[in-house]
Amino acid sequence: MQDTFDNMNIVIVGHVDHGKSTVIGRLLADTNSLPEGKLEQVRETCRRNAKPFEYAFLLDALKEEQTQGITIDAARVFFKTPKRKYIIIDAPGHIEFLKNMVTGAARAEAALLVIDAREGVMENSKRHGYLLSMLGIRQVVVLVNKMDLIEFNQAGYEQIVLEYQAFLSEIGVEAGAFIPVSGFTGDNVATVSDNMPWYQGETVLQKLDMLENRNDSQNQVFRMPVQGVYKFTAGGDDRRIVAGTIETGKIKTGDDVIFYPSGKRTKVKSIERFHAPEMTEDAAGSATGFTLEEQIYITRGEMACLAGETRPEVSARLRTKLFWLGKNDLTKERRYQIKLGTQKATAKLEEVITVLDASTLATTSRQCVQRHEVAEVILRLDKEIALDKAENLTETSRFVIIDNYEISGGGIVADVLNEEGDRSGESRVKWVESPVTREERTVRYAQRPVLIIISGYKNVEKKHFAGYFERGLFLEGRTVYSLDPSELGPVVGRDAMPELLAQAANILLNAGNIVIAPVEALKKGEIKIINSIICSQETKLVWVGDTSAADIQIDLHVEEDENKENVYLKFRKMLLDSGVIFD
């Protein structure tokens, strides 16, 4: 069986009657991907009904046979080349079916956009181009179809190329190629056209084989939205399998996995696949599952990630680019459901930044979004969800909005925001992964990077304890650094301290350090800000003195006048028990 990464999802879009079905039918026939005898059967049906044969009839015939058990359904068709297998997602072209086009394109890695050479660039040609760009589909191939109807005229082709190229450049999209084709005659689909010697580029099949497959998703960071957790009991089987589809990256037994937004962390015990041989790793595109060494409580909607890789964003406030297809306007008065991966949350429109007409690119600043419009808006959710910004990882930035049980819109997350007015994505450090991973440093230093906050109320010598702990770990040969938040700048206000501390600590954590920071009277809201930047599993809190008014979880409590040696032994035991240091 061919591996899943040899498959490629392609969405084909275009204005109604611009010839998408004909192009698909020709691709199926010219790659010998039709069921045996299907081409002859459709030709015979046309002959009996005195109808001229068209390749579009092949797609219609296959759709009609969906109920008869054939493996091709109404939305997807399959063909193959010597390089890979393709799944073509046929998206309806009429404006009323944009919702179907959006849901079909959401998982595509590339797009074919069909324009009728005789009719030229239409409103939906522009709208589809914009929606593809918003879905993060960067590989777009434009097919100027029905060239036979303009007698394969080069000037007609070039006029369409100039007009559509100008439109795409305005929305930041660059087409990989403009290919003049005729789905009806087969020119430049699978074979080079003799009718257009002036065109020296690739055929459609040649260009498809040149496209990158999911931007090499296996070599990206690991992301798997949790579909469910399944418990087995029959025959003494006590496995609890965390199941889902791997969007990007790879996972193997022994990997340190973190679930977001909860921040829960453990190791992968085994990889599980239904009716598959035993395996020790799995990769992007696979519907898979794994068991955990430590039985932590995980539910549907968590996002599984690997420790040491770039963590996802966690936020309840999102700046998004979306398209609206609902019957009712998107307004501030209504409540919606947002779905990203397997996560669901209630969403409210907080602000419309701008509304854009996808075909004319005209903008307006009104505070609602009407049907078939594209907008940049801020959404506020009722809970935090885990995601990636579109510029970092498209697959886990796409979402849909449900209004009254119907998919009414969708788009991508452009940025995450904290409290109103704080665009955290603009102020945070942009992390670039080091060639040396955290896991490699952990093995080399025999310790796990962690931020240890020493806190307590006024008149408690927190800096004294921080320095004492730093000196003890250093004498043991540990890589440790004491970070005083007051040294981060000449005037660091209390409000800015948590984020600045977390950003500075993150640099040291990425270098494999144990970081110790004295902070006076740490509050619950402040540790939440720190943990939005640093995983909660990489943060420990030592509280010195009275705890009666403390409103946060404390990992170790010591008295101010306790014997220093006893305090250090308790401190060291905490680090050993939590796996921060080891031999």
Quickly count the domains.
4
**SS summary, helix count:** 13
Which class best fits the helix and strand makeup?
alpha/beta
Cα separation of the termini: 44 Å
The helix fraction, in percent, is 10-25%
Question: How many DSSP E strands?
Answer: 26
Estimated share of beta-strand residues: 25-35%
CATH fold node name of the largest domain = Rossmann fold
Question: How would you explain this protein's 3D organization?
Answer:
The chain folds into 4 domains: 4-210, Rossmann fold (3-Layer(aba) Sandwich), CATH 3.40.50; 218-306, Elongation Factor Tu (Ef-tu), domain 3 (Beta Barrel), CATH 2.40.30; 313-422, Elongation Factor Tu (Ef-tu), domain 3 (Beta Barrel), CATH 2.40.30; 446-577, P-loop containing nucleotide triphosphate hydrolases (Rossmann fold), CATH 3.40.50.300. Helix 1 crosses helix 3 (56-64) and helix 10 packs across helix 13 (564-577). The chain has helices at residues 20-30, 38-48, 56-64, 98-105, 123-134, 154-170, 204-210, 424-427, 438-445, 462-475, 497-510, 524-533, 564-577; strands at 7-14, 76-80, 85-90, 110-116, 140-145, 177-180, 224-231, 240-245, 250-252, 256-260, 264-272, 281-283, 287-292, 303-306, 313-324, 336-340, 343-356, 363-364, 373-387, 398-403, 406-417, 450-456, 480-482, 514-520, 539-544, 556-558. The model is unreliable at 1-5, 64-74 and 421-431 (pLDDT under 50). The relative contact order is 0.08. It is elongated. The chain has 583 residues and is an alpha/beta fold.
